[in-house]
Specification:
The chain is of the alpha/beta class and 154 residues long. Helices cover 40% and strands 19% of the residues. A hairpin with a 4-residue loop joins β1 and β2.
């Protein structure tokens, strides 16, 4: 049986595939409202396209969700993302008061949730979401590895 988390993570993976088609690192994200069972926003990595180093999938999804709900606080909402968030994105997740973070593949080099600085474990972190790791991790990992394998050929 497919879990609800897998269902929504598949939509984030669809966003990641779109990012790869744009020549971006294939990372996708979506903000989900569990009370209404609806997707509030979805985004994909776009720093190259937007000439913006902050245009990570998580940041773009959070910005769009804030516009949809009319608030910079996104309490009660869940964030699905295909790769463990970096420190910048973990900070944005905390500031937005996302209730639950669900991510796919671990990122031992750039991740900041379960690797690196472990942002949410720091005493200076004022908001900590519930974290669920490893949802469709293999799907995300295969996509990322394939993307970088192709990039190294050129």
């Amino acid at each position: 049986m497919i879990s609800e988390d897998e269902t929504w993570m598949r939509q984030a993976l669809d966003q990641a595939r779109e990012a790869a088609l744009d020549g971006e690192v294939p990372i996708g994200a979506l903000i989900f409202d569990p009370s209404s069972k609806t997707v509030v926003s979805a985004a994909r990595n776009s720093p190259i396209k937007l000439n913006d180093p902050c245009a990570h999938a998580e940041i773009l999804a959070i910005r769009a969700a804030g516009q949809v709900v009319g608030n910079y606080r996104l309490g009660g909402l869940w964030l699905y993302v295909t790769l463990e968030p970096c420190a910048m994105c973990a900070g944005a997740i905390s500031h937005a008061r996302i209730s639950r973070l669900i991510y796919g593949a671990d990122d031992p080099k750039g991740g900041a949730v379960d690797h690196g600085p472990r942002f949410f474990a720091q005493p200076t972190c004022h908001w900590r979401p519930e974290v669920e790791a490893g949802i469709l991790a293999e799907d995300s990992s295969v996509m990322l590895k394939g993307f970088f394998r192709e990039r190294r050929k050129t």
